[in-house]
Design brief:
The protein is an alpha/beta fold and about 210 residues long. It is about 30% helix and about 20% strand. A seven-stranded mixed β-sheet has the order 3-2-1-4-5-7-6, with helices on both faces. Strand 1, helix 3 (about 50-60) and strand 2 form a beta-alpha-beta unit. The longest helix has 13 residues, at about 75-85. The radius of gyration is 17 Å and the shape is globular. The mean pLDDT is about 95.
């Protein structure tokens, strides 16, 4: 469902402009400029939604620098406002399409990439748009550090099975794979997205995997 246009969106985004990462290439050399401190690691969530996950992760790990990409400005605005209201200092936001990533990140600049409930693009002719399609994986491999990982959560089993094949075919080592995250030992440290909370309460099982560079 498309979000209704928010009032005063531009002004509200401008009020959170200190949290925006604009026209900056993320690299080890400019992390202090971006975050205001030297993070122990840098992690990216692609499609942050209203910010529940990235804010939860950042609050739990204040020494880590988190970057949150969101395509829809009004949705990014809500995430930034949430972050600001919680007083979280270690998150920066990027408003734009996923294809913007390759220009924004230097080689080997990220420790983790989170793919939370990405669009499954269920029709086979759209498979190249899935964020775990091989060409995306090639890009992630370039911007991830040698010991980096892609962490995926999805309620869509078809997308999950597609992703497992793509990960394996591209040399990623799979760990902590489960088809029912909330019933697994991993649930103890899981931070839910807004979407995840809604759908898990309705009985949907959540698939989870960590794909590590080998």
């Amino acid at each position: 469902m498309r979000m209704r246009k928010k009032k005063h969106g531009a002004e509200r985004i401008d009020a959170c402009s200190d949290l925006l990462c604009i026209n900056t290439t993320v690299s080890d050399e400019n992390l202090i400029e971006i975050f205001g401190f030297a993070p122990s690691s840098v992690r990216l969530e692609i499609g942050c939604g209203k910010g529940a996950f990235v804010c939860g992760m950042a609050a739990r790990e204040p020494d880590v620098g988190f970057l949150a990409l969101e395509r829809v400005p009004d949705v990014a605005m809500l995430a930034m406002e949430k972050c600001k209201s919680l007083g979280i200092k270690n998150v920066r936001f990027i408003i734009g399409d996923v294809m913007k990533l390759w220009d924004l990140f230097a080689d080997h600049s990220l420790d983790r990439i989170y793919l939370n409930f990405s669009d499954p693009w269920p029709k086979e002719r759209h498979s190249k748009r899935r964020l775990t399609y091989r060409e995306f994986l090639d890009g992630y491999r370039r911007i991830l550090k040698p010991n980096g990982a892609i962490i995926q959560k999805t309620d869509n089993l078809a997308l999950f099975e597609f992703s497992l094949i793509e990960f394996a075919d591209h040399g990623f080592r799979l760990e902590n794979l489960t088809h029912d995250l909330h019933a697994s030992p991993l649930a103890e440290n899981n931070i839910e997205t807004e979407y995840e909370k809604n759908f898990s309460e309705k009985g949907f099982k959540i698939n989870y995997v960590e794909a590590w560079l080998s």
